Amino acid sequence: MPKENNSKLRNYDPRYIYSLVVKRYFAEMKTKIEIAEELGVSRFKVARLIDEAIAQEYVKFTFPKQQALDEEIAQNLCKKYGLQDAVVLSVSETWSSQEQLNVKLGGIAATYLSGILKEGMKFGLAWGRVLSSTVSQLTTLPALDVVQLSGVHPGIEFSQGPIDLIHKVAAISHGRAHPMYVPMWVDDESLAQKLADDQAVLDTQKFYSSMDVVITGIGAWKTGSSSLCDIFPDAWRDALMSQDITADVCVTLVNSKGEILDSPLNRLGFGITTAQLRATKKLIGVAGGDEKYEGIVASLKSGLLNVLITDFDTAIKLLD
């Protein structure tokens, strides 16, 4: 294969090359081969230059009518699934991994929370990557009672765990954190009852029946995209898989039909119950991407969620 000739590019400022390439490609509608012939390089080099120019913002894409379409899609989600509200990450936003999507979803979730949370509210949040991203992008909040919704487990990274997240939100809001320093579950029913009667646990759980706003990620069990699935004992997980478990919403487990499943957590665990979630005034689920899709569908079928925050592609699939 002949060696690529970069002589025409070496004497030019890279900024000029980026600008020239994107002008030729996007404005003048020239092909990569035509641009390659003009510059004396391969079409693969041109493709790399276009990607680099986009990454470095020598060209940006705007979708003038997209905001109205995003709002229309959100409204249609509300109608189809009986939601109070929905927020859709615009098609103009791009990502190349679930981690990057979580950051994008965390950003719009943080903006949404900043608009709805009012002073004195009882606000609960679960745990996980997308909520960690949400909390990291919060800036100012009114004073809140920030409530931990489950016990803790060493399998969940501390920075994504319930205790760390509620303390961070309380610090931002200058409100009060209500932690619960107990495991997510124990192995013995008598020990579970003893811990449940502990005054510190009771002081936090007293908020559960009257929560104003709760935000949670959505675990998807069938694709393995669930931190709860990852940390469950094998015997528990296998039994639930045989019952078609598809999603978790906080510590409530849901099958593909949206039916709530019984689980050992109901006897041995510490966390907000399904009935208490249903009594929450606004229960927000944040999730997106292909690996979360089945979990999102199941959680919507369950009727637990009042609000869904997701990406454009997932929203379109949900409306199909």
TrEMBL record:
This is Sugar-binding domain-containing protein. Keywords: DNA-binding, Transcription, Transcription regulation. InterPro entries: NagB/RpiA_transferase-like, SorC_transcr_regulators, Sugar-bd_dom_put, WH-like_DNA-bd_sf. GO terms for molecular function: carbohydrate binding; DNA binding. Signal peptide: none annotated. Residues 72-319 form the Sugar-binding domain. Belongs to the SorC transcriptional regulatory family.
